[in-house]
Design a protein that fits this description.
By secondary structure, the chain is an alpha/beta fold. Helix content is 51%, strand content 21%. It has seven helices and seven strands. It has helices at residues 2-10, 15-22, 46-61, 80-94, 108-116, 119-122, 129-137; strands spanning 25-30, 33-38, 42-43, 67-71, 77-78, 100-104, 124-126. The strands form two sheets. It has a five-stranded mixed β-sheet with strand order 1-2-4-6-7. The chain has a two-stranded parallel sheet with strand order 3-5. Strand 1 (25-30) and strand 2 form a beta hairpin. Helix 1 crosses helix 2 (15-22) and helix 3 (46-61) runs parallel beside helix 4 (80-94). The N and C termini lie far apart (30 Å).
Amino acid sequence: MTQANNNLGSSPGSGPLAAAASVPFIVQQVDKFTVIEFRQPSLMDPVQLETIGQSLYRLVDAEDRRRIVLDFEKVQYLSSQAIGIILTMNKKLSQLKNSQLVLCGVGPRLQELLKITRLDRLLTIRPTQREAVRVGAV
């Protein structure tokens, strides 16, 4: 985690590292799952969240990706708008056959937020990305 932060902070303004810093998440395929790794500690900016939401919805609606892992390992803060995006993703996927949404890397702060809102009962949450991907293999 510190390595990424040091690299991203070392060259503001130009080059591929500056471009990487502006990307809020990366998408990769792991087995049958599309894994979205959020790269920033805070998902609070409404403008950025609007873009994130549109990108995530496109994965389901346009690209027909039905097994999705949202990895929050680097995230410490979520706004209500971010929670709304997660719930919309859950709703979209729950209406499709052979689909699944799994959250992973949820730290203590986010876990507490999910418990307070009782979303920990609604959403599938696993400690690590490896365990999240394993959910679909069972």
